[in-house]
Amino acid sequence: MTSTDRDNLMLPARGIGYRVFTVLVAVWMTVVVCVGILGHISNLPILEHTARNLYFHVPMWFTLMLGWFVTAYHSLRLLVTRRRIHDVRAEQAALVATVFGVLGLTTGIVWARFTWYMGTNIWWNGDPRQVMVTVQLLICGAYFVLRGALDDERQRARLAAVYALFATVTMPFLMYVLPRRMESLHPGAEGNPAFSQMDIAPEMRWVFYAAAVGFLMLFWWIYTLRVRVRAAEIRVSELADWP
178: exposed, middle or buried (C-beta count within 10 Å: 0-12, 13-18, 19+)? Predict the structure, then answer.
């Protein structure tokens, strides 16, 4: 790494605003979790109390998409500026977002098991949305396989940036457009109303909106923290190699 590359990894010191944001995220998510578990919910057919998962499962998909849009932005910036900090930011955004995506798929599988397949031993039946989401997560996972297969830092950064743009472009089609055109038990698919069309109590909507904002803030907090940690690790590693 050149001195210029090291300078590009310099990040501004965290001020009072970052501490306030940390406290805000902690308080916001605590309230969302407590209200989500203990608050009133609509008595929706089949879903009943499992509808509480709406506050957690759906916001995780929002977080996955936001994270990969951040990855795409910094990947594009990397290709334009060649600054390594954008590669660090892209990688960490993709990592955090993909973890949320895996959690979203897991909560979806469990939710389906105790609603659609109650009384059976079925956990997976190839529902179109589940399949499409799994394909998208495999595409996201291939990003990290690509990064791990290349030793040259600059080549890895450039190729990973190009692939990240491709992975982000596929996301709206695999997670939204195609599943809505196929028959599925999932709300919002062909033949089934979306949650926005269901008889959901107004308080449930507000908790859902708050949960969505909370998960996005949680993503941003984890992402920025990991960027700082990763940038510091790279600088320490390079300094340790000096004679």
Answer: middle
Q: Please tell me the distance from the alpha carbon of residue 209 to that of residue 35, in angstroms, as a whole number.
A: 12
Kindly state the tokens that stand for 145: 């396989």
DSSP state of 176: I
- pLDDT for position 7: 47
Q: Rounding to the nearest 10 degrees, give the CA dihedral for residues 213, 215, 220, 221.
A: 110
Quote the percentage of the chain above a pLDDT of 70: 81
219 in Cβ contact with 66 (< 8 Å): yes
Confidence grade of residue 45 (pLDDT, cut at 50, 70, 90): low
Closest among 31, 103, 111, 19 to 64, alpha carbons compared = 103
Task: State the burial class of residue 51 (Cβ atoms within 10 Å of its Cβ: 0-12, 13-18, 19+).
Answer: buried
Question: Among candidates 133, 109, 135, 104, which has minimal Cα distance to 122?
Answer: 109
- Please name the amino acid found at residue 241: D
Tokens found for residue 114: 């105790």
Tokens 């992975």 -> residue: 167
pTM for the complete prediction? 0.86
Cβ-contact 132, 175 below 8 angstroms: yes
Cα–Cα distance for residue pair 145/98, rounded to 1 Å: 13
Rounded to whole angstroms, the Cα distance separating 97 from 105 reads: 12
SS3 218: helix
Distance CA 175, CA 133 (A): 6
How far apart CA 60 and CA 170 sit, in angstroms, is 18
